[in-house]
Amino acid sequence: MRTTDITLIPLVRTLLDGEGIDSFELDVNMSILEGSIGILPRRLMVRSGDLPRARMVLYENGVDFEG
Prior knowledge:
globular, three-stranded antiparallel beta sheet, Alpha-Beta Plaits, N-reg_PII-like_a/b, DUF2007, alpha+beta, about 15% strand, DUF2007 domain-containing protein
């Protein structure tokens, strides 16, 4: 998932953690360097084996992870 919405990543991480799916946030340092004005997106990654289940969790909770 890629987003500039700073509230979305903690929500998604909480949903995934609740299902036992590990996630890892990328581009945090780049976002800090740009001054946290929200122009550089952050990415949230899961293991490839967890991807189908992670997508289902997000879909069931109404999280738009495609756009």
